[in-house]
Amino acid sequence: MKRELTAEPDLEKLADWDAEDKPPTESLPPLVSATDLYRGQIVTLRPLFQDLLWDGLTMLIARPKAGKSWLTLQFAVQVAGGPQVAGITAIEHGPVLYGALEEPKARTMSRLRKFSA
């Protein structure tokens, strides 16, 4: 059985929740048993970039100032239909959600403008 959140959780209801109460199900992720996992279909990961990245959680790890943010922004622009990153082929093109959670908006805007120059 698959459940999805359809609205924001009711924070007041959660604040009043007691350990003896039944957990509020609308705020919990779907539970999957080991039996369901064992019997389920194995989903093949889709490649995003040939021989480099696949869909799902990916961690890009390097030393500070190695260019991780620049590279991920270039990847996002390439998938969205922009210019190709040298030597890297995007398998598909389409909408992209780029989350620059640790940099100011102005820095991302500046980098995007440098790509188009």
Give a brief description.
The chain has 117 residues and is mainly alpha-helical. It is built from four helices and two strands. The longest helix is centred in the middle third of the chain and has 12 residues.
* Largest beta-sheet characterization: 2 strands, antiparallel
- N- to C-terminal separation? 50 Å
β-sheet strand percentage: under 5%
Mean pLDDT: 82
Secondary structure topology:
Elements: H1 11-15, H2 34-39, E1 47-49, E2 53-54, H3 68-79, H4 105-116
Antiparallel strand pairs: 1-2
Q: What report would you give on this structure?
A:
The chain is mainly alpha-helical and 117 residues long. Helices cover 30% and strands 4% of the residues. The protein has four helices and two strands. β1 (47-49) and β2 form a beta hairpin.
